[in-house]
Specification:
The protein is α/β, with parallel strands linked by helices. The chain has four helices and six strands. Helix 3 crosses helix 4.
Length: 226
């Protein structure tokens, strides 16, 4: 009887061992296919990230910036004498670029030869205020650009609320400057082969993008309204 019980116990233990040994065997195919799936997913994500990085490297970042779709038109004009020079206040409108405000300081009287153009990009201020940092001027056209961004900037929750609109205005800056330079180059007193872009403060950040955008444009000849 003892031997019989011992044999029964041994048989039961053997059966449990057989069942326990069979369980991992059933799980292994599942784990194997799951590992392959996650590996493939990781490789797919890596390929996607790599492709996106390559796309960023070859794409033209300026292509996404707003730019004028038509030649700008001067819709507002005023002039005054200041420190022996003529200061012109001009507002341009161009579809795709919006309103562009300029302050243009010209020698008075105008010389017979065409004038080099020097556009100054300063901080968040009007173009008139920015060109005050350029003393004299000589036989040059000194131009200031009115930033479309309000100054001073809103603060607190108001800044958060206006952030999307401010972002759009910032993106418009290179295209506006390029459009303004095109218009200036087409004026009768301007030398289109001698145009300089001077950036300081915030303007130093926008000048490189504006210069690249301006090189792609073609000068227009829309005159100042009389």
């Amino acid at each position: 009887m003892k031997k019989t019980r011992s044999g029964a116990v041994s048989g039961a233990s053997a059966s449990r061992s057989a069942i326990a040994g069979a369980l991992p065997t059933k799980r292994r195919p599942i784990l194997k296919w799951g590992g392959r799936f996650f590996l493939a997913l990781i490789m797919l994500l890596a390929a996607g990230v790599g492709g996106f990085v390559c796309w960023l490297g070859v794409r033209d970042p300026l292509a996404a910036l707003p730019r004028a779709t038509e030649n700008p038109v001067a819709t507002e004009f005023a002039a005054e004498l200041r420190n022996g020079r003529t200061l012109q206040h001009v507002v341009l409108h161009a579809p795709g670029a919006g309103r562009i405000g300029l302050a243009i300081s010209l020698p008075d009287p105008l010389p017979k030869r065409r004038l080099p153009i020097v556009m100054g990009l300063g901080g968040l201020a009007t173009g008139e205020r920015n060109i005050r940092h350029v003393p004299g001027g000589g036989d040059n056209a000194i131009v200031g650009y009115d930033w479309p961004i309000p100054a001073p900037l809103p603060r607190g929750w108001e800044f958060v609320r206006q952030a999307p609109d401010l972002y759009k205005l910032v993106l418009c800056v290179p295209g506006q400057i390029a459009t303004a330079l095109d218009w200036l180059a087409g004026q009768g007193w301007a030398d289109p082969d001698r145009i300089s872009l001077l950036g300081f403060s915030l303007g130093a950040l926008a000048a490189p993008a504006a210069q690249r955008a301006a090189r792609r444009s073609v000068p227009c000849s829309s005159p100042i309204p009389t």
